[in-house]
Structure formats: C-alpha cells, structure tokens
Amino acid sequence: MYTKQQKELIFLLKNDSLPYVELSILPKDILIHKSTKMSFEHYQGGKEMRKQSKIFSLLAIALAFALVVAGCGGAKPAPAEPGSSDVIKIGIFEPLTGDNAAGGQMTLEGMELANKLYPEVLGKKVELVVVDNKSDKAEAANAVSRLIDNDKVSVILGSYSSGLSMAGGQIAKDKGVPVIGCSPTNPLVTLDNDYYFRVCFIDPFQGAVMANYAINELGITKAAIIKENGSDYSVGLARFFYNAFTEAGGEIVADIDYQKGDNDFTAQLGSINSAGPEVIFAPGDFGPSALLIKQAREMGIEVPFLGGDTWEVGEFLELGGAEVEGATYSSHFTADEPATEMTQTFLDAFKAEYPEQNPNAFAALGFDTYILALDAMTRAESAEPAAIKDALAQTTDFVGATGLITLDENGDATKSAVVNQVVDGAFTFKMIIEPK
Length: 436
Description:
By secondary structure, this protein is an alpha/beta fold. Helices cover 40% and strands 20% of the residues. The protein has helices at 4-14, 46-52, 58-67, 101-117, 137-149, 162-175, 203-217, 232-247, 266-275, 286-298, 314-320, 341-353, 361-380, 385-392; strands spanning 20-22, 55-57, 87-94, 120-121, 124-132, 155-157, 179-181, 196-198, 222-229, 251-259, 279-281, 305-307, 328-331, 398-400, 403-407, 413-414, 417-423, 426-433. The strands form 4 sheets. It has a 7-stranded mixed β-sheet with strand order 10-9-11-12-13-17-18, with helices on both faces. Helix 7 (203-217) crosses helix 8 and helix 10 packs parallel to helix 11 (314-320).
C-alpha cells in the first residue's frame, strides 16, 4: 500500500501537475529506468552532485511511471477504436485565437449549430471535440495529432485558412483519418492527400471568377495586385487571378507584396497608384485588406477593390468603415438566394440560435462539413475512419447549405460561387457564377 503522500504524488504525476519530485519520497516499486535518469557529470563537487541527483524532471518520472505494472494494478486496456463506443467523436481544429480567430469562430458556430440540429448518427450520440489551432501551423499539426491519438475521433473538420489546413493534412493522411475542410481554398490542401476533402470551391475557380468579373462586369483591362508575402492563400489566389486576367486579355500593371503584420501600406499603394490601374485585386485576410483599402481612399485612390472569400467577416466592415463601401469579393454563400432546402434550414436555425448576427458563408460552410460527415457515415454504415474516407470520395450532389456539392477525384467541391459587395455598410448579394 502507498502512503498518503505517495498516493498524492502518483496522482500529480498522472495529471502532469508536478514539475519536479524528490527521489526519496517515491514509492519503492516505482522503478527509475537507467535511460531516464538525468546526467549530472557536468556538475562539480560531490555534495552538489548528490543533491542534484535526487531531482528528476517530470518527463523522466512520467516515463518511468508508465513502465510500472506491478505497483499500479496491472496493464491498462488498449484505447478504444474510433466509433466503437456509444459515442461517435468528430474532431474540430479551428483558429479560435490569433489572427484568424474571427473566421474560425464563425465556422465553429456553424458546426455546433449542425450538431444541435443533428446530434446523432448510426444510433449513437455525436460528440464534438474542439481544439484551438491558435492560427499557427505548428499548433494546427499538433491539434490534428491530439484529436487522432488522444481523442480517437472518427473524422476531423477544419480548418479556416489554407496554411493551417495543409499543416494538419499530412498528419491526418499519415494516421489514416479523413478531414473535411470548410474554407481552405488553396489547391495544395488536397493535392496528393486522399484523406482530405472540402466543401468549398478552390482558388483557380475563385481567381477566375473575380478576373472575369473585372473584365466582363466592370469593363476594365488594367489591374494591380497587392498580396501578403508568405501567405499560402494570398499568394495562391493572386497567381490564379493573374493567370485568368491576362489570359482574358487584361494587363497586370503592378504586382506588389506586403508582409504579415504590416499596418502601413502607403508605400505599396503609392507604387500601385503610379502604375495607373483601373481595379486593385487584394486577396489578403480581412484585417490587412480593410486597412489598405481605408488607406487607399485616404490617399485619394478611387478605383474599385476586389478580393476573396476572407473578407466576409464583420471585422472587415468595422476596420474599414465607410471606406470599404463598394468593395466586391467572391463568396461561397448568400442568404438572399437560398440554393437548396438545406440553405433555408440553416438560415432558420442560425437566426434562432444567433438572433443578433447575420448568417455568413463561414458558418454555412462549417454547417456543411458536419452534415456531410454524418452523411458519409450513414452511407458507409460505419464510423471507422477508412470507411468514412471511402464514402466521402463517392459524394455526388450532396444537398448542403451552400448548395449542391459534388467532390471530384481530388476531393474538391464542384459548386457555384457568389459575388457579394459592401453596400450601405452591409454585405450584399450581386450574382451567382456557375463553374464551366
């Protein structure tokens, strides 16, 4: 039997709550493997060395504790396989803090709303396991690992931001658990990864939509691009706009970069203005995009601004104020033109759940990832990751809140795009553009 002090020590060790422990108070049957001992050869003086040799790091003790069988009542049972219990776990990795938090929070609201409407599948309760990827690529990879290894989820939803999605995607592929992306539009997210799927269109289509809008709807032939250097989303979408615009006969008169974290864009905007564009394409995140449009207007630059799907968050309007009036961007969704019966279901539920908010594209996409996951499990008649992955690959004409979704050979959604514009301080529907 262990003493009270030893029992408390064991509890703290199990819960990672003890930074250091004195060797003399360990239970005698907690053996310290020689490979886990800290090395103190570099310490000088016998007394100091003896003192230091009694202290071990938490990592060493935790590892030694895991090796003990006899003193802890026998070996632990193997963890349950995904879907084997009375609860089916769906993992979520979204940026709930950091630069991308606004988009991540809206997406999560849509997922949670769908879970509230459809809380069961295959006769079992669905539990959402949410991990904040903190708008950081390393954290995104860690989040996916945790969801798979610790939480034993059957499928993962996320993430807002292509870079975060790619960071987690390879982990999911290696571990054999499917992921359904909500709004990561960069083509590389699903490239060579048959475990990653998405309910959104991709940037080659989005870039072409905005390039053709500029030429066909605005009647212009000269455009400038300002993008965030190092952003997978911004750089990729800028390239696809460039290609589509020039192939349609347009000319890119300036292609300028800014850096992550910049908040003064006057130098870049001055160079762009000198080039004489008729429109400016700014495929950045909502924060820097709103600021650079605001600064452009303050500098007297009056040409139209076009952007991508990241602009559809309330913070874009708040940061940009009256200066973002007329800004036009591509989106995945409009509340003004319900695409399917599920669109109306989503709208009604969203307004009831969040009466102070307007329905938005990211919530609708999050909603679609969840109901598609349930649809795949139903078709597979299984919550096993491999079976879900195979069912997702066969998705055709799925009725989502953002429209009909068919997944191609890469796991990408073939679907229409929406063009919205800021009018009287609100996001307003302009048109729907179908893929050719």
